Amino acid sequence: AQYQIAVVVGSLRKDSFNRKLANAIVKLAPAEFSFKQLEIGDLPLYNQDDDAQPADAVKRLKAEILAAQGVLFVTPEYNRSIPGVLKNAIDHASRPYGQSAWAGKPAGVLGVSIGAIGTAMAQQHLRNMLAYLDMPTLGQPEAFIHAKDGLFDSSGNIGPNSKAFLQGWMDKYVAWVKAHAG
Ligand code: FNR
C-alpha cells in the first residue's frame, strides 16, 4: 500500500469497543491504505531518566510511527480525559526533546463510549496534545460514537446505522492524509 497508517488504540481491554471500532473502520479505506495497530501495552511507564537508553518497546513504537504516513487514534474516555496508557505512549514517542516521532504526521481522532457524550471530552484533551506535537489533525467530521447494540454487525463490520457516517469520516481522513503526508 502507498499509505501506511499507524493505529493507536487507547484501551488494552481484550473486548475493547475501541479496538473493535479500529478493526472495523479500516475496512472502509481504499486499497492504497494499510493500517497497523501499534502495541502500547508493553511500554514501561515513561521516565525521563531512560531517554538516553530507551526500552526496545519504545524504539519499536517510535520506528513504527516514523515509518507511517499518518496516525489514527481510537480511544475511550477515562474520567473525562484519555486513558493513562495512551498518554504514556504519546509521551514516550515525543522524546527525547527534538526527536519526537509524532511531528508532522497527519492524524485522525475517533472514540466510542458507553456514556452518552461518546468520548468528546477525551478527544478534546487529545486534540490539545496533538496541536502541541505539531500533528495536523482532521477537524471535521467529529466522531463521538455511542456503543450500543448494532454498532457492529455479527462479522465485526460497522453496522448499517453507522456505516454511512463512518464511511464519510474515512473518506475525509484519507483525503486529509494525502494532503498532509510529507
Ligand atoms: C470509564 N468510562 C467512561 N466513559 C465515558 O464516557 N466517560 C468517562 O469519563 C469514563 N470514565 C471511565 C473511567 C475508567 C477508569 C473506566 C474503566 C471506564 C466507561 C468507558 O466508556 C467504557 O469502560 C468503555 O467500554 C471503555 O472503552 P473500551 O475499553 O471498550 O474500548
From TrEMBL:
Organism: Keguizhuia sedimenti
Enzyme Commission numbers on file: 1.-.-.-
Keywords attached to this entry: Oxidoreductase
GO molecular function: oxidoreductase activity
Protein name: NAD(P)H-dependent oxidoreductase
TM stretches of this protein: none
Source organism superkingdom: Bacteria
Enzyme class: oxidoreductase
PANTHER family from the UniProt entry: CHROMATE REDUCTASE, NAD(P)H-DEPENDENT FMN REDUCTASE LOT6
Domain NADPH-dependent FMN reductase-like, first and last residues per copy: 4-146
InterPro entries assigned: Flavoprotein-like_sf (IPR029039), FMN_Rdtase-like_dom (IPR005025), NAD(P)H-dep_reductase (IPR050712)
